[in-house]
Amino acid sequence: MSTMMGMFPCDFGPGKVTYKGTALGYTRGGIQVSVEVETRPIKIDLLGVPVAEALMGGQIIVSCPFAEPIPEILRSIFPWFSGITIGDDLLELAGTLTVFPAWGPAAGITFADMLPSTRLQSSFATNGERIWSAQFKGYLSHDLGQISFNEAS
Question: Which of 63, 89, 152, 153 could anchor a disulfide with 107, C-beta 3.0 to 4.6 Å?
């Protein structure tokens, strides 16, 4: 039986975002990242108590409220606009998401193997701009190598 070890939310604040090399623009309201980790206790027969805890997997969710993107840019990155059908493997369409929080690092933080969620929300306020809210989701591997803090060159 596996258990959810925890969810680690982090508010990255304002910044800009790229997905598969396409600039999606700046955010309004800030970028939010949560990492959910799933573990399983390892028990031995003699004592019946856990002697270790094994990482089973988890997921990364990056939420981005975009202030700039025009619908054409969003259509180019979201898989449901590209002719997918029921039964297609969406993980084959996953790409690299890089966020550039205003506080740094200058080269950004990269999340590998991310996929846009199937929900894209839009909100609009009078005398304000349209905000496009999108989520990107990825799964953790055994070495947690999906997240990297890039070095500025």
Answer: 152
Token pair listed for 24: 């999606």
pTM: 0.75
Domain residues for the domain of 57 are 3-145
What tokens does 115 get? 């996929």
In contact, 140 and 57? CB cutoff 8 Å: yes
Task: Return the closest-CA partner of residue 80 out of 48, 114, 117.
Answer: 117
The answer to whether residue 32 sits within a structural domain is yes
Q: What is the mean pLDDT of residues 90-102?
A: 83
Specify the 3-state DSSP secondary structure of 75. Answer: helix
In a domain, 97, yes or no: yes
Torsion of CA 61, 65, 71, 75, to 10 degrees: 0
> What is the CA 59 to chain-centroid distance, rounded?
8
* Strands in 44-88 per DSSP E: 50-66
